[in-house]
């Protein structure tokens, strides 16, 4: 049982470079999410997708883009990385489209450092 | 604005009981979640409350009072493996999860 996988596990990136974080789930969940987690702060939603073909902006979307071409994959792209994007990034999925009792299940995370 | 408050850190003794509190102010309420997160790992789901009262699940229980904007997670018979951060999250009127910063629980032998 794979659940949700993320790649890479960690990455060091030069500022100004483009980077795509990959997320794949095999649970056939409709909804997927990208969060960043910084020390002392709660998880903050970057972008989400309630179903394949649709995406939405979360709390901190600037500098990030996403696409949802199919149910399983939800890549997150940093077009031009900046040091403030240094963080741990978690992908999550849930089996409904954001309704009540919509438990989210998390991938293992990507630790990104932008220098 | 929306706000979730929980203590930054707590310490407890192996075998004891600990209560982790969470207070919230959100635009709407569609349930409250507790997650456990071990250092360097992903959050994992522990419990969900949408109605007032206590939900018990083994050594862990979660309580909700919607009128007070308050929840707690109760951990009994503490084990060393319970050392982790515990995250409180509320689903708002837009069905988005608003997360607290987490409570780091340290268990001492």
- What structural class do the secondary elements of chain A suggest? mainly beta
C-alpha-based Rg of chain B, rounded: 13 Å
The level of helicity of chain B is under 10%
Q: How many β-strand stretches of chain A? A: 11
**Largest pleated sheet of chain A:** 7 strands, mixed
What structural category arises from helix and sheet content of chain B?
A: mainly beta
The multimeric state of the shown protein is: heterodimer
Give the N-to-C terminal Cα separation of chain A: 36 Å
Termini Cα gap of chain B: 40 Å
Radius of gyration of chain A: 13 Å
What is the overall pLDDT average of chain A?
A: 93
Order of helices and strands of chain B: EEEEEEEEEEE
Find the biggest chain interface.
A-B, 21 and 22 residues
Strand content of chain B: over 45%
Helix content of chain A: under 10%
Largest sheet, strands/sense/barrel of chain B: 6 strands, mixed
Residue ranges of chain A: pLDDT <50 for 5 or more in a row?
Answer: none
Task: Give the helices and strands of chain A as they follow along the chain.
Answer: EEEEEEEEEEE
How large a portion of the residues of chain A is in β-strands, by DSSP E?
Answer: 35-45%
User: Taking all residues together, what is the mean pLDDT of chain B?
Assistant: 95
């Amino acid at each position: 049982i794979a659940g949700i996988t993320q790649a890479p596990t960690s990455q060091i990136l030069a500022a100004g470079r483009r980077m795509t974080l990959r997320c794949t789930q095999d649970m056939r969940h409709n909804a997927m999410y990208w969060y960043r987690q910084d020390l002392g702060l709660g998880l903050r939603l970057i972008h989400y997708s309630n179903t394949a073909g649709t995406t939405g902006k979360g709390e901190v979307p600037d500098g990030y883009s996403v696409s949802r071409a199919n149910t399983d994959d939800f890549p997150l792209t940093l077009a031009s990385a900046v040091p403030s994007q240094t963080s741990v990034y978690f992908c999550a999925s849930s089996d409904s489209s954001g309704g009540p009792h919509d438990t989210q299940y998390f991938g293992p995370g990507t630790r990104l450092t932008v220098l | 604005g929306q706000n979730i408050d929980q203590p930054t850190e707590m310490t407890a003794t192996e075998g004891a009981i600990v209560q982790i509190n969470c207070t919230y102010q959100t635009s709407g309420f569609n349930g409250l979640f507790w997650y456990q997160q071990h250092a360097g790992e992903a959050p994992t789901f522990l419990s969900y409350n949408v109605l007032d009262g206590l939900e018990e699940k083994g050594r862990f229980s979660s309580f909700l009072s919607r009128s007070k904007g308050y929840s707690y997670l109760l951990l009994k018979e503490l084990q060393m493996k319970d050392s982790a951060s515990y995250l409180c999250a509320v689903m708002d009127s837009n069905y988005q999860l608003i997360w607290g910063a987490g409570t780091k629980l340290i268990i001492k032998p």
